[in-house]
Each structure stands twice: as C-alpha cells, then as structure tokens.
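Please predict the structure of the following assembly.
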Amino acid sequence: MELTGKYTFEADQQSTWDLLMNTKAIAAAMPGVEELIPVEGAENQWRAEASLKIGAIGGTYTGVISMSEHDEPSKYRLTVEGEGQASIINGTAVIELLPNSDDSNKTTIQWVAEANISGKLARVGQRLIKATANMMSKRFFSALAKMLESDSTE
Amino acid sequence: MWPKEFDYVRASSVDDAIQQTSDNTDAKILAGGHSLLPAMKLRLSEPGKLVDISRLADLKGISANGTLSIGAMSTHAEIAASADVQQYCASLATACGMVGDHQVRNFGTLGGNIAHADPASDPPTVLVAAGATIHIKRSRGERSVSAEDFFIDLFTTDLEDGEVITRIEVPNLSGHKAAYVKMPHPASRYAIVGVAVILEMDGDTCKSARVAVGGATVSAMRASGAESALSGSSLDDAALNAAASAVQSDISDALMGDVSYPESYRQAMSGVYLKRAVKAALG
C-alpha cells in the first residue's frame, strides 16, 4: 500500500530538518509514544512503544524506527518495523523537505511511503488502514509544527 | 472468540456512569455494544471495565415538541419506526433503518453510533445535514455541540473521557424536502458514499439547501459548496451538475479510500449520489 502526503511547516528548511532529526521532538509528536530508546550498537535506530487508541480499537505496539540515507537538509528515509495486536506493520518512507520558493520561512514536507500491514488489523480493518495511516501522519506533523510555533515565541 | 477478562457494572444513573469512567481511564461506556463488543472479541479493544448505560431510563425515549429529542439510548429500530422521527426528520428514520441488520438495529443505539463515529455509518451524515445538536453530560455540568462540530476525524469526536451523550436534538424539518441515499458496500452494506440533502423549497425554487457527505470522507461533513450551488436555483440539470462538481471539491481534503474503492472513485460517486439525493428528496 502506497501512502503519500505533505505538510507545510512555518520554518526554513534547516530548522525543519533539525526538528525532524530531534528524537525528543519526534517521540513527543508520535501519537501514543513516550520515548525513543537508542538501539545499542546501531546508529540512527531507536526502539519505541506506542499505545494507540482509535475509536473502540486500541492497543500497544512495539517497534524499531530507523533513519537512513540522510541528505541534509533536503531528504532522508524513515523506516518503521513494528508489531502489536497480532499484526505486523512495516513501512518505509522517503521524506523530502522542499523550501518554499516564495517564502523562505516555509518548508513543505512531502512523503512517499510503502506500508505493509499483515495479521488481524489487515483482516478486519482493511477499509480503514489507509485513512488511519493518513490521520496518524497528520497528527505527527501537526504536533511537530506546534513545537516550532512554541519555540519561536520563547 | 472470547474477549479478555473485564469487569462489568451497570450504571445506576448518568452521573454514576460519568463518575465511574472519569475515575478509571481503562473503563469504557457500554451502550448497545454492537461496535465495541466485536472489537473486544477480536481483542482489538481490551478495556478493563465496561460501564453499561443501556438501561438508563433518562437516556431513552423519543419526544417531539417543537424540536425532536432522541434519547441517546434509543435503538436504531426504535428511531426508524418512530412516527415523530418520520414526521420531523424522515431521512433520519431512513438512515437508522439502513444500519447493519435487524439484530444490530435492535441493540445498537444512536448515542453509541455517534460516539463510535464510524466514517461509513449512515446516521451521522443525516445528523450533520439536519443541523442536529448533541447534548452531553459531564461532571462539571452539561454542554451541547452541533453535529457538524461533533464529528472531527476518523473515529474521532468532540466527546471526551468522562462524558456521556444524553440526547440528540433535531430541528423540525417537516416542511422540507429531504433524502438520504447511499452506495452500500456489496458485502458489509456500510456506506461507500452516503449523501444527505435537506431542501427548503419555495415553489419550484430551492430557497436554501443543506448537504452532508459520509462514507467517502473520514467523518460526516457539510458540503457548503454544494449547498451554495443548490440554493436559489430551480434544481435544474445545470444546478445539479454544478452542485455535483462542487461537492467533489468540498470533500477533497477529507477523502478516504481502500483497495476496492479508492479516494478518486468515492469522490466521483459523491457527485452522482448528490444528484440522486436531490431527485429522491423532490420525489
């Protein structure tokens, strides 16, 4: 399943990049995640636990998040391998940071992701998976964007 | 399939239910149980405690006195069969009569349905078009919110933990022409696209229109572009075509899709079903 989307941040490209590389900010923005714990012996790899609730459905997921192919400040790859609720969730996304040509204080993040979900969630939630993934991405990026706003007012 | 072990209590009053769920974030309100229990049996939902409000008399009953007041624990079957609902807002009776099957309609409640906010469910779309008001009770008192503001996103509503929907208020639309039509999923009968229209007519001219879309979108939502296209027109082919294209742009940021029915298809169908809804309303 392919997922695409974009989100515009009110910040220049470098600040947006710094934010996306800040694991504390990422952990705080990821729905249901408390913290990212670095995987020992690996670079740019973190273990995370998320407790998610969407409607009547809720549960705990565990997984490994990694970042690679860094091309600062314009592009990187984010990979997630997780499991929970008798399901396996794998996804990899190429995330691009596009500076706005009219306004250097705006950066558009654009992602193309390939996600695979198998197990119980895929069996019973097929009709909702894509919309759920989109909602989660929207929540993640809007939470990050809020951090930018609160930073600039300090 | 068996759910994980949980505690069950029958709330003695609405206030009791509010207190029992406010104190315990692991507790869930149980209404008709026809969305929650299947999720629990699949172990996709594992609340530690269910607080049953389905028998609370305060939350039952339908009355029509200037506006229609539907107790949150009214079942879909009761609403579909109610003479008051049919008189005040017949398309709500139609939508409730389309939910699930007989078993679901006999147990499932309108309050539970909107709290769950399945994007493909029928009643939310009609409630948004009808300009319904959701009345909510909480420990700090009562509040109300319009249906339009109540449905926020996929399975996401304005309702917070420790709050209980008490009743749904619908204005008297008996003088209006209204309809709810949907493209049902061939297997589940869930709405792939559902459109509700409510038209205020002055002779052959549409004085004002309210349009809402569900199924195709992450939640039931107003389609204001389509409303403007219909308002003031004689609902001729030109107006219907304009409204059909307007509704597609109204919902373009909120579309959802799946393998069988992608976003673009549902978007196109929203135009088709809007036209059908207007024609059905005019009878």
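Residues 59-171 of chain B form a domain with the Uridine Diphospho-n-acetylenolpyruvylglucosamine Reductase; domain 3 fold (CATH 3.30.465.10). The two ends of chain B are 46 Å apart (CA to CA).
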